[in-house]
Write a structure and sequence with these properties.
- By secondary structure, the chain is mostly beta strands.
- The chain has one domain: SH3 type barrels (Roll), CATH 2.30.30.
- 12% of the residues lie in helices and 43% in strands.
- The chain contains 1 helix and 7 strands.
- The strands form 2 sheets. It has a 4-stranded antiparallel sheet with strand order 2-1-6-7, with no helix packed on it. The chain has a 3-stranded antiparallel sheet with strand order 3-4-5, with no helix packed on it.
- A hairpin with a 2-residue loop joins strand 6 and strand 7.
- The longest helix has 10 residues.
- The radius of gyration is 12 Å and the shape is globular.
Length: 84
């Protein structure tokens, strides 16, 4: 399985692949559930190998470690899932 960092960077940089609608599902430890967000809601920082930021409804960035990503959806189809 492709590492999640590589998949997220492919979505970010491969313009042909990125012409789709992507959703990222990560485990929220506080709510103890999978939260799905559009790829456009995340910020990947160059050189950051452990996490990305999610911009919440209030506009506040929240750090999400890559290991908490559980699924990636492309046009409604599950294309990546982490076994827990």
């Amino acid at each position: 399985m492709i590492p999640i960092q590589d998949l997220l960077h492919r979505i970010q940089w491969d313009t042909e692949f990125a012409k789709a609608d992507f959703m990222i599902g990560y485990h929220d430890r506080v709510e103890d559930r999978i939260v799905r967000i559009p790829f456009s809601s995340i910020q990947l920082t160059r050189g950051e190998h452990f996490s990305f930021d999610v911009i919440d409804e209030e506009g506040t960035p929240r750090m999400v470690p890559f290991h908490r990503v559980r699924e990636v959806w492309r046009n409604g189809e599950l294309i990546w899932a982490r076994r827990v």
